[in-house]
Amino acid sequence: MNDHAFVPDDFAVPSHLATPQFRLEPLGPQHNAADHAAWISSIEHIRATPGFPDGEWPPVGGMTLEANLADLVRHANDFTQRRGFTYTVLDPDSGAVIGCVYIYPSNSEDHDTDVSSWVRADRAELDVPLYEAVAAWLSTHWPLGTLNYHPR
């Protein structure tokens, strides 16, 4: 993880992405309970999602709500400091958390940016539409260079 911004200072980081099927907004502590419930109910599904093969997240045994909050605070701080951008994926009608998108500088020399996303197991039909919308959004509206985002 870099300690410096990976987008230019003059780049206006988008506050959201909206489609008829979902909307994205920056992930923060206010999403803690809903985020925790979303991924804890879908650990096996998320671990089977392309881009999550490292076996580190989500933890098989889950984590406490307090530990999840610390993780969300870290992601929110990264967003504020422009070191990485994590968006929660929300149902456009109910506002329920249905997934997450992570955008961070790559540690690989083959790519500039690592992107990953997941959706809850009970919303698995949104995995491909989320991937397609995010890939198009990042490619056309963000100055991120080459993306490492595992196709669906």
Describe, in plain words, how this protein is organized in 3D.
- It contains four helices and six strands.
- It is of the alpha+beta class.
- Helix 1 crosses helix 3 (65-80).
- The longest helix is centred in the middle third of the chain and has 16 residues, at 65-80.
- The model has no long low-confidence stretch (mean pLDDT 93).
What is the strand and helix layout of this fold?
Elements lengths: L16 E2 L4 E4 L5 H9 L2 H5 L17 H16 L4 E6 L6 E9 L7 E7 L7 H15 L5 E3 L3
Parallel strand pairs: 5-6
Antiparallel strand pairs: 1-2, 2-3, 3-4, 4-5
- The separation of the N and C termini measures 26 Å
Write down how many β-strands occur, each being a DSSP E stretch of 2 or more residues.
6
CA gyration radius, whole angstroms: 14 Å
Largest sheet: 6 strands, mixed
What's the short story on this structure?
By secondary structure, the chain is an alpha+beta fold.
Protein traits:
152 residues; alpha+beta; single chain; six-stranded mixed beta sheet
